[in-house]
Design goal:
alpha+beta
């Protein structure tokens, strides 16, 4: 996380399962955002629920979020359940 915040973003190789798992955990809590880099160079933002199930086909770019997630209204309904245990 320190590397991401210092550099602004961090590329992750497609087959780097360990780093992707850690990035997924950090995105669940809103510390980072994940973009999946497509074959054509474009990026697609992954929701936390998508990152958990993402494949190793594409590399990722992990970045500092522009603002913190708010559980009440900023997350899609499918992602709010991931945060339920945090507030129990």
């Amino acid at each position: 996380m320190d590397a991401v915040y210092a550099a602004g973003s961090l590329p992750i190789a497609a087959d780097d399962q360990t780093t992707k798992m850690m990035a997924t955990r950090l995105t669940i809590f809103g510390f980072v955002v994940i973009d999946e880099v497509q074959s054509d160079g474009s990026a697609r933002r992954l929701r936390p629920s998508e990152a958990i199930h993402a494949s190793t086909v594409h590399p990722w770019r992990v970045s500092k979020p522009s603002s913190r997630y708010r559980v009440d209204d900023s997350l899609p309904v499918s992602d709010r359940d991931l945060f339920a245990a945090q507030h129990a």
